[in-house]
Design a protein that fits this description.
The structure is a single chain. This protein is α/β, with parallel strands linked by helices. It is 40% helix and 20% strand. The chain contains 14 helices and 11 strands. The strands form 2 sheets. It has a 6-stranded mixed β-sheet with strand order 6-10-9-11-8-7. A 5-stranded mixed β-sheet has the order 2-1-3-4-5, sandwiched between helices. α6 links the parallel β4 and β5 (188-194). The longest helix has 17 residues, at 23-39. The radius of gyration is 23 Å and the shape is globular. The chain starts with a helix and ends with a helix.
Length: 375
């Protein structure tokens, strides 16, 4: 193992309290964390994706991602079905070797182990952890009517060596990918070989703090507030908001909603009303006066003219609005529709907790009280 990977492994093991494990097992956790973090942007416990402890043949890590959430039991899948009324599923498999070489036989065994995982009558022995994940997969396939598309399947074979694209090894990978694709179970299959350089890059990316620069000309600077470095309130276009909540692959950044009290609730009376407002051009222009807006808390907030840079930010209020806007993004013009927004820069955790509590608290309004407002 090279010095860079060794040092990163030690840093990771110390941060996760894994110093007492053997190096090979530490490396399995390390590889799982780096790979899954690239596919799943929210925080997670490395134990939730580790299946190598049972000596499962060929598989050290497995993440089942359903509707953007990492699931670990069937009840979580049922909750997502009830809330969202649909399923979007991705499977991420990892095999990690401390060896500095890529072994064709091991790659073949890894791919065969993944194929066996999806067999109704498995041929290989399964440990307890892998068997539990298989029950979740079986439950998902029993609910195929809820699937928007067939699941995706991503395989990562990780070593401490240098991947050079060896023709024979690449042929083994290509054939394995073809075999999995021909099962007609998946909408997309990828098989990736990761050497030390690729692993180091994935690990560093998992530790990067998200920083985004946005245009914010229509804002008012709030007066000095104890414990808050800087704060603004104003309006931005939905196109600007999308820079905060959508990544380069046009996928919703679910990680920026981790501090929100509630996850996206799917079809509710309020969310359906937002969709209705966005459905026509005339109504969508009134969105800015109908919506309560978004509250964003940043660990660091920098202003330069009409631009603001947000570092380490969380959307603590506005998860429902953000998700509905994202879901309806093809129905309206992103530049012409405006949304109220509040940006707050602070590192004070007590203030952050107070903001989350206050912005998500309101007195209940009964339907008959709203009805009294009509003619």
């Amino acid at each position: 193992m090279d010095r860079i990977t060794q040092n990163l492994l030690q840093e990771f093991s110390q941060s996760q309290g894994l110093q007492n494990l053997q190096e090979a097992e530490q490396f399995e956790h390390f590889a799982n964390n780096a790979v899954v973090s690239a596919e799943y942007q929210e925080s997670f416990d490395v134990e939730d994706v580790y299946v190598g402890g049972d000596k499962n043949p060929g598989i050290d890590g497995l993440a089942i991602i359903v509707n953007g959430s990492l699931v670990s039991d069937i009840d979580e899948v049922n909750d997502l079905i009830e809330t969202n009324k649909y399923l979007e599923v991705g499977f991420v498999f990892v095999q990690a070797k401390t060896s500095a070489r890529f072994d064709g036989a091991d790659i073949g065994s890894f791919i065969e182990a993944v194929r066996d995982f999806f067999r109704e009558a498995p041929r290989l022995v399964r440990g307890a952890a892998l068997a539990e994940r298989a029950l979740i997969a079986d439950h998902i396939f029993r609910n195929t009517s809820k699937l928007r598309a067939n699941p995706t399947c991503a395989l990562f074979y990780v070593t401490t060596g240098n991947w050079t694209g060896d023709q024979n090894l690449q042929a083994r990978i290509d054939q394995g990918q073809k075999d999995l694709t021909q099962t007609d179970v998946f909408s997309r299959v990828t098989v990736t070989a990761c050497g030390a350089k690729e692993l180091q890059k994935l690990y560093r990316q998992s530790k990067e703090t998200l920083a985004i620069e946005i245009d914010f000309p229509n804002k008012v600077t709030l007066p000095e507030i104890p414990g808050i470095d800087q704060a603004f309130i104003g309006v931005v276009s939905v196109a600007t908001l999308f820079k905060l909540i959508i990544d380069d692959s046009q996928t919703l950044r679910r990680s920026v909603f981790e501090d929100n009290i509630r996850d996206f609730q799917g079809s509710t009376e309020v969310n359906d009303a937002i969709r209705k407002t966005l459905s026509t051009s005339a109504h969508s222009k009134s969105f800015v006066v109908l919506n309560n807006g978004i509250t964003v808390v940043c660990r660091e907030l920098q202003q330069t003219g009409n631009k603001c840079t947000l570092v380490g930010y969380q959307i603590v209020n506005g998860c429902q609005t953000s998700n509905v806007l994202y879901g309806c993004r093809d129905a309206f013009d992103h530049q012409s529709v405006l949304v109220p927004i509040k940006l707050i820069g602070t590192e004070n955790e007590e203030i952050v907790a107070a903001i989350i509590s206050a912005t998500n608290s309101q007195n209940a309004v009964k339907p008959e009280e709203l009805e009294a407002m009509t003619e």
